[in-house]
Amino acid sequence: CKYPINTGPCAEWTQHWFYNWKTSECESLNFGGCYGNGNNFEKKTECEE
Predict the structure, then answer these.
(1) For 36, which DSSP code?
(2) BPTI/Kunitz inhibitor domain: which residues (predicted)?
(3) Domains of the chain, with CATH numbers?
(4) Going by C-beta distance under 8 Å and a sequence separation of 6 or more, which residues neighbour residue 22?
């Protein structure tokens, strides 16, 4: 997944995960709770699939 990291414009911060295609690893991000894109996962295991 090559979507860029997108934390979303809202402010209900929770830990989510995104796939960093440059490092080939799932990394955590602070997600604002709304919008985002297809490279945004609630669980690390979902990101790793």
Answers:
(1) -
(2) 1-49
(3) 14-48 (4.10.410.10)
(4) none
- Spatial separation of the C-alpha atoms in residues 20 and 26, rounded to whole Å: 6
Residue position matching structure tokens 């919008």: 35
Which run of H or E residues covers position 48? helix 44-48
The pTM assigned to this predicted structure is 0.87
Angstrom distance (rounded) from CA 10 to CA 43 = 19
Mean pLDDT of all residues in 5-9: 94
Q: Within 13 A of 21's CA, how many CA atoms are on the CB side? A: 6
Give the dihedral of Cα atoms 34, 10, 44, 27; nearest 10 deg: 130
